[in-house]
Amino acid sequence: MKFTKTTEQDSKYNNLEKMSISELLSNINKEDKTVPLAVEKSLPQIEKLTQQIVLKLKEGGRLFYIGAGTSGRLGIVDASECPPTFGVPHELVIGLIAGGDSAIRKAVEFAEDSTTQGWNDLQEHKISSKDVVVGIAASGTTPYVISALEKCNKNSIITGCITCNQGSPLALTAQFPIEVIVGPEFVTGSSRMKAGTAQKLVLNMLSTASMIQLGKVKGNKMVDMQLSNNKLVDRGEKMLVTELNIDQKTATELLKKYGSVREAIKNYTNE
Question: Could you tell me which PANTHER family the record lists for this protein (predicted)?
Fold first, then answer.
């Protein structure tokens, strides 16, 4: 199957090495501004996948992100931020990358070309039809990701994807594809730039909207966040001061006693 990889097309700019720092930054910024508009066009697709994620998570399933290179790293970042932000178990949102954890810091050659390892990695987590698997690949042609989603489809597992090319093999494989068409990169083919930004924005939407739907936010506050450092403890105390109309000392005592903002609010009203 042939399709046009707009992410691989020549940059709109040339002779980059002759540009001043100011010109480079201005032009990169000019291209970056187009990304949210591209994401906006994909909102209907993002909504459909989010609905599936919420449904499965409410039924006790898990969300998996699977990708290679930049795409894999972005999935891992989003997954790793869900427990501290929303107080969910580390096993609820899981990010997998071609080449394993060592590939997070250093590229593993040819790992993305495997047509079996993606499914093997999912099986290590006892993947089942209760779960949702989202493949992430800017090009939409990564064998590691596509083959994993193909196996998921055969095993009645909901599949989605985030890609930046129209009509790619990945989008045609996923049941709920998200295609964010960002066009050529500032540096030709460097999909860690606009494509990576687009993928990050979509991942933010998928996880944040899903967690809100699961009741992990109250009003607009992260009441289930993990109090893992002084900054977050201070933020939690301020939430309690505002929510319960109490003084700082009382807020500090409540947070120490109950260990979370949500529990402090619930138990304070019952005291």
Answer: GLUCOKINASE REGULATORY PROTEIN
Please state which of the four CATH numbers 3.40.50.10490, 3.40.640.10, 3.40.50.2300, 3.20.20.70 is assigned to the domain occupying 6-214. Answer: 3.40.50.10490
Give the residue extent of every domain in the chain: 6-214, 230-267
Sheet holding 176-179, edge to edge: 93-97, 63-67, 132-136, 158-163, 176-179
CB atoms within 10 A of CB 159: 24
Cα–Cα distance between 50 and 153 in angstroms, integer? 18
Mean pLDDT for the chain overall: 95
Cα distances from 121 to residues 39, 53, 113, 173, in angstroms, run: 29, 20, 14, 19
Mark whether 47 is an active-site residue.
no
Residue tagged active-site, from 31, 112, 150, 179: 112
Assigned token pair, 180:
């964010």
**pLDDT recorded at residue 92:** 98
pTM strictly above 0.90? yes
d(CA 66, CA 73): 9
Positive or negative torsion for Cα 98, 99, 102, 107: negative
- Please state the rounded mean pLDDT for residues 199-210: 98
Q: What's the pLDDT band for 8 if we cut at 50, 70, 90?
A: very high
Task: Identify whether 17 is a catalytic site residue.
Answer: no
